[in-house]
Amino acid sequence: MAYIDFVSELHKATKRDYIGRVTSADKAECAKVAKEYGYDYWDGDRKYGYGGYRYDGRWRSVAQKLADHYQLCAGQKVLDVGCGMAHLLYELTQVVPGLIVNGIDISQYALEHAKEEVRDRLQYGQAQAIPFEDNEFDLVISLTTLHNLKVFDLKKAVQEIERVSKRNSYIMVESFRDDREEVNMLYWQLTCASYYSVEEWEWLYREWGYTGDYSFIFFED
Fold first, then answer.
1. pTM
2. Long-range own/partner contacts, residues 4-7 (CB < 8 A, 24 or more apart)
3. In whole angstroms, what separates CA 37 from the centre of its chain?
4. Residue 3 forms part of a structural domain
5. DSSP 36
6. Domain total in the chain
7. Closest CA to 212 of 168, 172, 157
8. Distance CA 80, CA 84 (A)
9. Phi/psi zone of residue 220: left (φ > 0), alpha (ψ -120 to 50 degrees), beta?
10. Where residue 211 sits, what CATH number does that domain have?
11. Sign of the Cα pseudo-torsion (31, 42, 106, 204, in order)
12. What are residue 57's phi and psi, to 5 degrees?
């Protein structure tokens, strides 16, 4: 199990008004709407989620880092748990021609509006019950997804990722290292159900037998 950061540079490129998020609207109502993972979450007002999720190529750099680090090649299989609109999976097929990709998500809206080139490789599926066989994938990834699960489902999801991976896996979730980052995270989040510090996440991974790689995104000032 190793800490490897593929995403924080992309995460930091977005500016966030933490105070504005928590004071400009009914945060509880916004969270309720966001957790439906429908139009409002993806393409509605920013107070409900992304505020418009359009393909712009920003995930290409992450795809290249993943491909380089895990030495991905044509014919290998990659699964994205919580793939959303599959922009990252699409980019992986571009940087590694011939790569076989699959994605699962609980958002029917995201699956229906996913990148057309890989849409037929996506299906509905829950992280805590991944609909694939043991050791089926050369790499299993899950980015900004597992923190949306409560702890009893989170344990199942981590162990499911371990189960379907031949060897390599990578999980990235939201976390915090100090009080300020914790407050910012609470202000900003809409769907998070597992609020853990870095030390707590690492402890959980060890307890649940996770052997893959991991990293975090932080909500800094």
1. 0.96
2. 4/69, 4/170, 4/213, 4/214, 4/215, 5/215, 6/62, 6/65, 6/66, 6/69, 6/170, 6/172, 6/215, 7/62, 7/143, 7/172, 7/215, 7/217
3. 14
4. no
5. T
6. 1
7. 168
8. 9
9. beta
10. 3.40.50.150
11. negative
12. 80, 5
* Any domain includes 1: no
User: Three-class SS of residue 139?
Assistant: strand
Domain that holds residue 72: 8-218
Domain membership of residue 67 (yes or no) is: yes
Is position 192 within any domain?
A: yes
Q: What is the pLDDT along the chain (221 residues), one digit of tens a residue?
A: 899 999 999 999 888 999 988 888 899 999 999 999 999 999 999 999 999 999 999 999 999 999 999 999 999 999 999 999 999 999 999 999 999 999 999 999 999 999 999 999 999 999 999 999 999 999 999 999 999 999 999 999 999 999 999 999 999 999 999 999 999 999 999 999 999 999 999 999 999 999 999 999 999 97
